[in-house]
Amino acid sequence: MSLCLARLARPLRLARSPVQRRLESTAAANLRRPANKLRNGLIGSVAAGSVAFAYYYLTDTRSAFHKYQVVPLMRWIYNGDDVPRAQGGRGDGAEKAHEIGLKALRGLYDIGLPLRERGQHDYLGTRGMGVELFGHHLKTPLAISAGLDKHAECIDPLFSLSPAISILEIGCITPRPQVGNPKPRMFRLPTSDSLINRYGFNSIGADVAAIRLRDRVRRYAHKHGMSEQEVLDSEHIPASLWENRLLAVQIGKNGSTSETDIEAVKRDYIECVQKLGRFADIVVVNVSSPNSPGLRSLQKRESLQQLLSAVVEAAGKTERRRKPKVVVKVSPDSDSPDDVRDISAAILGSGVAGVIVANTTVKRPSQILASPQTTEEEKRIANKEFGGLSGPALLPKTLQLVERFSRELGDKAVVFASGGITSGHDAEEARKRGAKIVMGYTGMVYSGVGFWGRMAGEMKGILEGHA
Ligand SMILES: Cc1cc2nc3c(=O)[nH]c(=O)nc-3n(C[C@H](O)[C@H](O)[C@H](O)COP(=O)(O)O)c2cc1C
């Protein structure tokens, strides 16, 4: 066979015309000339340098590109309502942008080009930045709150974004899969950097989430020559599988489970703990989503205490040495002194370790339409679309509730602040009022993946007295 090919090749070589041969030898001679060698070397170096620069610049979360190009571009491309045009809708919108954003983060991570914050991260060593939480040392008090990675599909790419992220809360995960509310169900109010969503617990279900979480543990165990159970039982490896960082898994009930049947409700949450608890440092009980009808009625003292006690008991039985702590997430709309007192009593009576204050609101603070730049579409969305509002307009309520819950709970439970926190100043204000952990979500949607490092940098300035 190779002989035949050699025979075929010879006549082909001979078949080149004299002109062709002359051209080839001129080209070869040109390449050998010192001036041309230099020029080609320069072009090669510039090309390689540009690729290296693009790589370093574009994969650095601190680059202005992410805030000033990626965020507006995503809004411009995905400007519909997520209802297909064939069904009378306006095509891909905010929900699709969310999905594509996570896919891009995951894809880049999988091919070894994760987005990450380059540089010194000198905020990590700042005095007063670190916190002790549930026996772990965290280098910052910052956390990503639930709803960003609902389906446990982007855990490592999100932790990779910045060492400023100490906790990632995934979910909400329900025991059985469910599709959530019909689309459209997510709306932007860009003039006030706010969102309204009514996803309604779209979830892949606890079984699939457990497979994803277990797969991470198995891969980690394989890489480090350990067994799966050794990883789960290690005193030194948090469930996040990232040093000094924690994974919180948020759980909820299925829409088909009546909130008035407290035994059925307990079964839903317990099933989630049994399937997911061993992969979590923290289990978050969601009784505060405004988008699951009746859910928030579970915040009434008696039912809440029963539910939380059942979850705490189930968490105590998970198959890992260090059991997950249980935290409850409450609504900012349950804000009367009586509500705060009742919820706090249920927390203290059930042995829950903390409270996240708070979820999105069904209220529409006037601030969201205050700017003269507010468009007619934004006014329509704010007035007509049902769902939970998030973004800076929540901050005053968050701060007020953090203060109230901190006063009620003292040092018996940890307060996590969530709602409208978009700067280092907001974070420090929440900490001053008693929050130990400060969570964000909508701030990242509007300011890009550099959000966490920027916020930690601003906190450093405040802690050192420069800001
Ligand atoms: C699109 C979207 C989905 C959310 N999904 C959940 C969820 O599943 N569970 C939950 O407790 N909170 C959910 N939240 C609320 C956030 O976790 C957070 O509490 C709220 O947005 C307030 O914080 P922020 O103003 O920093 O965004 C969601 C928020 C948004 C914008």
UniProtKB/TrEMBL annotation:
Biochemical pathway: Pyrimidine metabolism; UMP biosynthesis via de novo pathway
SUPFAM superfamilies: FMN-linked oxidoreductases
Coiled coil: none
Keywords in alphabetical order: Flavoprotein, FMN, Membrane, Oxidoreductase
Cofactor or coenzyme needed: FMN
Residue intervals of the Dihydroorotate dehydrogenase catalytic domain: 131-460
Record protein name field: Dihydroorotate dehydrogenase (Quinone), mitochondrial
Species of origin: Discina gigas
Gene assigned in the entry: URA9
